[in-house]
Structure formats: C-alpha cells, structure tokens
Fold:
Amino acid sequence: MKRLLIWASNQANLDATAKIKERHRRYYQTHKEQIAQSQKQYRETHKEEILEQCRQYREKHREEIRIRCKLFYETHKKEAKKYREAHKERRVINKEYHRNMRSQALERLGNKCLLCGFSDIRALQIDHINGDGYLERKQKLKGSKFYSLIANLSDAGLKQKYQLLCANCNAIKTAENEEQAKHRKRLEEAIAV
Ligand SMILES: [Zn+2]
Structure:
C-alpha cells in the first residue's frame, strides 16, 4: 500500500513537472521575439559585467576548457579539415588582412627603427616603451587585432606607448632592461641587509 502511495505521488509530481514544462514551452513559443529582444537588451546594458563573468569562468575552468577543446578537436578533425579545404580563400583573406594591418601599423610608427634607422620591415618590431606588452598579451591583444589598434590610435596615444625598433635594437633594449632590473634588485637587497 505504502509503495503504491509513493508511486502515485511520484506520478503526480511527474505530471505536474510535465505540465509546467509544457506551459513554459508554449509561453516561449508565443513570446519568442519579446524574449529575444529583452535578452539582447540585457546583454547590451550588462556588457562589461558579462565579459567579466566570462573571464572569471575561463580563469576558473581553464584546464577543463582546454581538455574539452582538445577532445572536440580530436573528434571533429575530419570536419575541420573539410571546412578548411572548402574555405581555402578564408586563409588567403586572413593573411592578406594581417599583412595589410601590420603595414598600416608600421607606417604609423615611421617604417624604420627609431634607434638605428634600419628599414627592412621584415625585421621591424613594435616595442612597448614602458615594457607593459605582457598586459596586452594577457588580454589576447595580438596579431591583426593589435596592429589594427595601433593603426587607429591617436597620435598622442601612439607616441606615448609604442615605438618601432629593429630586432637587434629591441633585443639589446630587452637585455639592458633585464640587466638594470637585476642591478636594482641587488641594490635593494644590499640596502635591506
Ligand atoms: Zn635598430
């Protein structure tokens, strides 16, 4: 008898859940556009908040996401290859866009090394004057996105943050900065003792 009662109560719960689900489905069907509109509005007014939540989520689930992406790639390798082959022109367009953005960015920075005047653009590098390039790399600001930012920055903003150096001068600057940082550290340690 007790079993029967439990079964009846479970059945009633299931029926009630199904009814609620059906009501939600009907409501969604008849208010589809309204819901989409209000969701869009919410996304627009809470843009920063949503971006921050996404960033926090990615940070917290980094390893899990990496494994999931790898697994997805492994199981969809064939489709990915097929897509790449069917859209070969995309690669050419992307490459072209990247080259175009880089050339615009270099042009804005004078197309030659600020220190020695070297002008073969294949060996020119955009240097962060204050050495804070890691912050931009952390925000995934690199490649075409980075060049596009440079190409569109105001003159004042540009000269304050970036300069063009050849690979040699940039390597020397990095080495000297590291040397200076080590020297500062040694001095601080000596003072602390
Ligand atoms: Zn140089």
Observations:
- Residues 2-30 form the longest helix (29 residues).
